[in-house]
Write a structure and sequence with these properties.
Length: 272
């Protein structure tokens, strides 16, 4: 389980390498890694070199921290994240969030590639996550609680910070982009969901589904780190269009809409 000593050891290692103390944390999901290349004066540290970090094995995830400047802010960027389907435990997936907080990060932006459940959505849309449904049956807070990290029973009412959501809406307007709003359903994967599961998620109130994000948001709420999350709808979920799904489709749409997405996130960073 994550504890104070582990987090401080990771932070101490990074403080010796990073060019400056970061202000904003950024996690890049599937197909969204190229944004990290836009950071200037950047330092890059592979996850496997950082004490207590795990290595990313997901396709197209570079598996490194990139620290530099973006839109006039000092940003610490995860170029690729960890997932439950890689075999990692929830606390291992969420661990970098605590390290970011220890390094001085004051706001966290999460991104992901998601399947659209809401039939009003289209492939290539961006969705601001207002809330989530955790269908993994797991939590990164399971086990003994280190009170240095956060309270035993963190409140999730404002896990997606209203003030950051307002800034995201303003950023989208400034970019001339439509930003959908909705509820994200987090699952384990790696298989895509069945049409019956998607019908269930829709009945529960979910607008999009994906295999990440929820553990990181829980950890951020636990340690008091304000968070915003934006999903790119890279495919319509199983049964919506009654066509096969593939990981290649996810990456193709992410590449096609990547420039607009990077512009949105960069504008949001500049407003925090």
């Amino acid at each position: 389980m994550t504890n104070k000593q582990m987090v401080l050891e990771s932070a101490a290692y990074l403080q010796k390498i990073l060019p400056a103390a970061p202000e904003i944390g950024l996690v890049l999901g599937s197909g969204l890694g190229p944004l990290a290349e836009e950071l200037t004066d950047a330092a890059r540290i592979p996850y496997e070199k950082i004490p207590h970090f795990k290595s990313s094995t997901a396709p197209d995830h570079a598996g490194q921290l990139v620290c530099g400047e973006l839109a006039g802010r000092r940003v610490l960027c995860m170029q690729g994240r960890l997932h439950g389907y890689e075999g990692y435990a929830p606390d291992e997936i969420a661990y970098p969030v605590y390290v970011m907080k220890a390094l001085g990060v004051r706001a966290l932006i999460l991104t992901n590639a998601s399947g659209g459940i809401n039939t009003a959505f289209s492939v290539g849309d961006f969705m601001l996550i207002e809330d989530h449904i955790n269908m993994t049956g797991k939590s990164p807070l399971t086990g003994p609680n280190d009170s240095w990290l956060g309270t035993r029973f963190p409140d999730m009412t404002f896990a997606y910070a209203p003030s950051l959501r307002e800034k995201a809406d303003t950023a989208a307007q400034d970019c001339g982009l439509t930003l959908r709003h909705g509820v994200y359903c987090g699952v384990n994967g790696p298989q895509f969901e069945t049409p019956a599961e998607i019908r269930m998620f829709r009945a529960l109130g979910a607008d999009a589904v994906g295999m990440s994000t929820v553990f990181e948001v829980i950890a951020a709420a636990h340690c008091g780190l304000p968070t915003a999350a934006i999903a790119m709808i890279t495919n319509m979920a199983a049964g919506v269009l009654m066509q096969p799904l593939s990981g290649a489709e996810v990456n193709e749409i992410a590449a096609r809409r990547g420039a607009a997405f990077r512009r949105l996130i960069t504008t949001l960073v500049g407003k925090i």
